[in-house]
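Q: A small favour: would you put together sequence and structure tokens for a protein?
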Amino acid sequence: MKIVKFMASRSWGGLEKVFVDLCNTIGEKHEVHVIVFADSYVRDYLSQNLHIHLLKANPTRLNPALYFELRKMLRRINPDIIHTHGAKSSELIHRLHMKTPHIATKHSVSNGRIFNKLRFVTAVSKETLATVKNEKISQVIYNGIDPVEILPSEQTSFVPFRILAVGRLDKIKGFDILIEECAKLRFDFHLEIVGDGPHRDILEHLIDTLGMGEKIAVKGFCSDVPQRMQDANLIVVSSHSEGFGLIVLEAMFYGKMVLSTPVGIAKEILPDEFLTTHHTLAKKIEEMYADSSYFQKRFRDFALMRKNDFLLESVSEKYLSFYEQIVDPKEIIHDDDKVVN
């Protein structure tokens, strides 16, 4: 099967990493053509097994030259199926009115009215799929990861108790609330926030205002997140909203225990004892600190039971199965015209 995968993003983050991982994995066994913009960070992480095509036109949706270049590129590739990730790439392909089957993946609960117009849609969580007003063919396919080897944690004590938060430094991640809640903790701890983004100065100012500079640090971008997860006592997700929530998934493979607000995949798969609200965040962290052995065992048992479902190879096979159903309509299984995972 000849597959085109297209993402219009030119930055780098969780969504882009998911896209790259899927391209690289599926490209090991199938002919995959990846279309990205010439200045996209994504191109630096793509495997040599892939056929990479670079769009050079101005990336605005209103640029006729972009549509001309994209159409010409697709005609030259002549794929069996086109798979877009995100709203912009999905809209660009939709406007071309190609005869080639087009599947689009929605990664966020916000934005993306384009998905309501498309026949074939996947979403990375049930919550995200619920935002698609589409009565055609749709399916939930969770994201997956390919675990990396990391060194065993050298930490043998809980002093200080190491808390880790990871993500883009944006208001939606709730890091300001996490900082304020951690300032209430009554035990020795150290909170490390890994990531970069527009709210970094705001968060660092908040830390200084609360006088928490010795206990809370914003580390910026780090390439060793799995190792940091392994070394932490607790991984916290404090987001207001998540389309998926890759950190929860990574915590299942690398972390000792996780605590999350009820967003994205967290509220769909985590046991209730690992969920919290913003208002009860400090109280729950203190509870998990006080009974770390119990919570670590409970989380380890849960992770062992579920994490194989989220291996990248398994997720890739689900996409390939959906591709085959679309390319050969006789294979589609209908349930009120909707395929649900």
Confidence is low (pLDDT under 50) at residues 332-341. The chain has two domains: 2-146+311-331, 161-310. The longest strand covers residues 31-37. The first helix runs from residue 14 to 26.
